[in-house]
Amino acid sequence: FWIHLSQKPRRDAVKNINGPYNIPLLGALQESYGLTPENIFDKSFEMGLKYGLVLKAWIFNRLIIASGDAELNEQLLSSTVQIRKHTLYSILHEWLGNGLLTSDGHKWYTRRRVITPAFHFKILEEFVEVFNRNSKTLVNCLATKADGKSAFDVYPFVCAHTLDIIAETAMGTKVNAQTGGTKQYTNAVLEMTKTVAWRFLRIHLHSDFLFSVLHPFKKRQSEKNLKIMHDFTHKVIKERRDALEASLKSANGDVATKKRMALLDVLLQSTIDGEPLTDEDIREEVDTFMFEGHDTTATSMACSLYILARHPRVQDKLLAEINQVYGEDFSKPITLQSLNDLKYMECVIKESLRKFPPVPLIARNLTEDFKYTHSILGDGVIPAGSEFIVIVFGMGYDPQAFDNPLNFIPERHENLDLKSSFQFIPFSAGPRNCIGQKFAMYEMKVTLIHVIRSFELLPLGEAFVPELGIVLRSVTGMQLGLRKRTI
Ligand code: HEM
């Protein structure tokens, strides 16, 4: 009774927000019962129709606000105060430490300032060669599947490809995931990514204690993988630091002018409050890039290929644009400038991100009262301590923003007339938006150029069945078929 009474001020504060019936003390358990990673998408749409784009739910003493409403989300995501990530992210801590993705407060702010120059266009320009070379390897790997009649899951192929790219660009090291190279490290990254996604879907396993007790074998395996990954990253950092110091001591000095800079090199040369970053600081950030920079992009790319396979008209138009920009004989080199000329491809990628957002949810813990002004809800306050979930996947299907949202229509992005840019946020928005957004777009463009020029994508295999993870998954994989093009 006392708990129920103590909730009253918080209940009163969110009276203007609809939501399912709450059983005193227990909350809306009847709604969460039977919710699975696969049915959560349909259930969310049902609840949106019933309660509107913003809804509240209590689970015991926790107040959860879920919002697919751009007006409210804009105010939350633009805030420089409400930047604390949800406790759901805690399962990433043992791997990523307190890096850019998971930190907040002063630490996040200073790190963001130091890391931003690592994504400067001059550095991205140098990465085009890495994207290009690895895309050619991807094409060679995919050629083994191009019999024109068999369906296969394209995700593992693009995942190894994005892992190769991020290792080379973040650490300056080749791990050859596509060709079976540095197996111990790449297997550890891939297994760890799977374990994190698996734990994410099982709320009780967010507790490290329960994870150790209920799944001791998985826990041991996970510790082994962590050690392999951390040892590897530390070794690479040490080697790059030694090389940097040696080159700075040498007469004609600076590595940056001679060799391609990896993101790691930018961190090695940075200071915070006059102090260089320690190896552990850098390790957190490099591991953050390794995680955040490969799985998101792999999902996005695999989904683009999946949906293109089912839209031959769009494929033809894309191929025509590629030929127009690079010549039928592919004589023009791929540069950042020429990638910017691929306007239709940009629309294709955006449309795929709308239909299949790789990060389906963004979740925050509110550290202070969140005051908002809203055209329907009026002025209000969501109390500190509440949890706020931005339903990114729902926003892409809002018919107010996107006509015929179920259809795949890249052309809609040519003249998209949104009331606010916050209506379309696959890379989030505001101060905690994705720092790797441009990197990802260029990487995806180079990959698509090579795959589309080499193969006709065929609508074979099972349909996509979405499954919620930290990153979007499909229960059936991302299936398609391939036929070699004769150029
Ligand atoms: C299609 C590919 C990608 C998508 C859809 C994507 C999406 C996102 C989203 C939605 C966030 C915000 C997460 C949150 O607030 O909880 C985010 C943050 C972040 N992303 Fe990406 N991302 C992609 C690729 C990349 C790449 C390639 C890198 C690195 C090379 C990267 C690095 C990061 C980092 C470090 C953050 C945390 C930024 C901060 O909190 O200041 N991402 N990304």
From TrEMBL:
Keyword list, A-Z: Heme, Iron, Metal-binding, Monooxygenase, Oxidoreductase, Signal
GTP-binding listed as a keyword: no
Keyword Metal-binding: yes
Matches recorded under InterPro entries: Cyt_P450, Cyt_P450_CS, Cyt_P450_E_grp-I, Cyt_P450_sf, Cytochrome_P450_Monoox
Entry superkingdom: Eukaryota
Cofactor dependence: heme
Amino acids binding heme: C434
Gene3D superfamilies: Cytochrome P450
Pfam family, one: p450
Family: Belongs to the cytochrome P450 family.
Protein name, as recorded: Cytochrome P450 4d8
Gene name linked to the record: LOC101888909
